[in-house]
Amino acid sequence: MTQYGFRTEEIDTSRPHPARIYDYLLGGKDNYEVDQRAGDELAAAAPEARIGLRANRAFLQRAVRYVVGSGVRQILDVGTGLPTSPNVHETAEAVASDVRIAYVDNDPIVNAHANALISRSGPTSVVLADLRDPLAIVNHPDVRRVIDFDEPVALLLVAVVHFLTNADNPRQVVATLRDALPVGSFLVLSHATGDFADRRDAQAVYNKASATLNLRARAEVERFFDGFELVEPGLAQVPFWRPDGPPPARSGEIGFYGGVGRRNG
Ligand SMILES: C[S@@+](CC[C@H](N)C(=O)[O-])C[C@H]1O[C@@H](n2cnc3c(N)ncnc32)[C@H](O)[C@@H]1O
Predict the structure, then answer these.
(1) CATH assignment of the domain containing 153
(2) pTM above 0.90, yes or no
């Protein structure tokens, strides 16, 4: 067993993992040599990759402040990633002290680290589940323990849907989650794209990882918000979604769309 309470054989260090590549590129320590190599290859193929991931993370924080500022007190964060400060609960708590959060990820390392960081009791739960089985997420007892689907929920799908292939039917997956949310709920979603630069080499880095990267064009990403109304400024490259400062250098090349939609009816 490791200090985090899971068996070491559960950690696959033979292949890079998306959560650990992301952690490496954000400057974290929860990664292995395979992840570092993949991260370096990614940064070589897409020189703006590190800036892009930081911009995605900053989008996540602005979007969380926005939805909590709009009155939502429940967050379902699917594909939460390795804990990176400020975490979603820290950002949410800075706006309101009574926000309940369910963190969901399919990576046992993420699950173990998140559990080590966050108390299991109280208004936060950490759930090991797969986005490809959305009903299992919605019906999971530890999700239901903190999320009341009769009250507005902010569903976060930030930098995760692009790990679903078309064969995984991502539109249906996201629709199933959206359908579980009542009026007044929000969808916060970001997604990798090749619309601003040719990123086939970057995409190829993930071919040997535990999940492939599936770049999608603007129209495809917008359809994930079907039935929800995008708040201003609509779907945008992440640095340009309600920026709270000047955009970082090379923002125009950043291959991440981000948006926030609200269920109005
Ligand atoms: C790039 S990280 C994003 C972390 C965080 N949402 C953010 O934007 O800062 C993607 C996360 O999605 C998780 N993930 C990938 N495929 C998944 C799936 N099918 N179900 C649940 N989580 C998944 C990975 O384990 C990883 O932790």
Answers:
(1) 3.40.50.150
(2) yes
